[in-house]
Amino acid sequence: MYPARIHDEFPAPSYRGNQEQALADIRAAFERGKDVVLVRAPTGSGKSLLARAIAGCARTAGEAAPEQVCDAYYTTPQVSQLDDVAEDALLSDLCVIRGKNNYDCILPGETDTPVDQAPCVREREFDCQVKHRCPYFSDRAIASNRRIAAMTLAYFMQTAGSDVFGKRDVVVVDEAHGLGEWAEMYATIELSPATIPFWGDLDVPDLDGLDEAVRFAERIEHVTERRVKELRGNAELTPDEVAERDSLNQLRGDLSWFQEDYRDPESATTWVVDQNGGEGAPVTVKPMNPEKYLKHTVWDRGNRFALLSATILNKDAFCRNVGLDPADVALVEVGHTFPVENRPLYDVTQGKMTYEHRDDTLPKVARAIVRAMARHPDEKGLVHCHSYAIQEQLDDLLTEFGVGPRVRSHDTEDRDGALSAWKRSDNPDLFLSVKMEEALDLEGDLCRWQVLCKAPYPNTRDSRVARRLEDGQWGWYYRTALRTVIQACGRVVRAPDDHGATYLADSSLVDLFERARTDMPDWFAAQVDRLAEPDLPGFAPDRALAGVSAGAKRRHDRSRSSGSHPLSDVWD
Fold first, then answer.
1. Out of 27, 191, 253, 301, which could bridge 283 as a Cys pair, Cβ 3.0 to 4.6 Å?
2. Per-residue model confidence as pLDDT tens digits over 19-45
3. Torsion, CA 226, CA 227, CA 233, CA 235, rounded to 10
4. What distance in Å separates the CA atoms of residue 465 and residue 440, rounded to the nearest whole number?
5. Could you give the C-alpha distances from 460 to 112, 466, 483, in angstroms and in order?
6. Beta strands 168-173; 72-76: pairing state
């Protein structure tokens, strides 16, 4: 790596905000001999441009000796972040590669078939005459030979150990704050009818502890291996059989990894097993702090690493979570350049939104939202609902209060479509979202206000969360929630001249700020210090609808009476 050229590799024609100083600090950290640099850069600091400059410091093929690796990877957990990179003209030399299911086969009669179900994976010894033109294999070949290959973190981890995407000189991970949690998710093993076609023939026991879970995993691995051999014996497979073969192969690898890691006395990974329902019930095997998994899928993939995020809140805790020695890691802090008065926090708390208090609190939250709608009659808003159960209740309450014509929502199947329709709409609609606290860019009039209706604490019914709390890891619990809050607050203010208000409806959020104060970045602490109660209008649904067109109200009335029409967004 050659950190000295980091400024020359910056892709924009000029710097903005603190970018020039950030690059100088990153360069100095690498030149001090640090192999890993954490870059804590807030929303709007241009993390992708910083990432490109860092990646550009990697050795090139012409600079490397035969035994040395060269070039760089750029990876991010967020698909939407990768999409943004692919569309950014300043980042055109990042060569994007995606998974096979994102590409269509080009053979006659197969043009609607994704590459992961094409004849080359369905038919034994199939000789594809157009493989050199296949969109997936073409993109893969190009990316493997380009200076900077860009991919999602899922694809990056899945290609660990491959000949095509081997070790490189520099690895840049954008939005890296959840790296440990993403690794835990990827390494989690689901054993159920959805993942094992022959589940009904397994005689699933009531697992009592990890030793029994390991024996059960070993038995499933043997049965799975026999089924895969049967499928491989067929000259041609159906698309469903291809999907079964691939999922079973993945399962075999996961089960083998689990057994090997559990039996390794030097492994730092702690495994937990969930089986709600006892005998015959599905089983979930989950890792905690999967250092060994990350070593194979991430840390063995490069010489130097840059991890960028707005919310790496505690350096030492983050390093421990992902298997790094804090002494070998540098932290570069990038200051916020957005005026604090442009990103106000408002206290409209109505009580606790915990499960036992929700039925009492949520109607009050809905009334507060109606009042906020009246304060922003001509501006789009967003509600972070935390769960689909809260979203559904809130949607019903807002409709009962008479503001339904201004409300939109989504379900698990139409997240992207509903979000895009809301962003395109000219009406000042309120969007009820679930799990959209990250990787959502709502600059300018796309959204001027938002509501956090529940403190996003991890689910204590999750065995990993429960285990950590049993071990007294309350700091982790509060940091995880604070990280999500900070990410959410960044959705509506995206530039120094942008502005957007965030309303806090759950009193547990104020308590969270007190408990996690020591882990707050200074720029967010400045927002919290200015927390104030807003001057909201009285509860007046008519005022909340003042900016909605009469036509939109009529369309809403029809959709409420006859069900949501698939062309409703076309009408809008």
1. 191
2. 999 999 999 999 999 999 999 999 888
3. -170
4. 26
5. 43, 5, 17
6. parallel
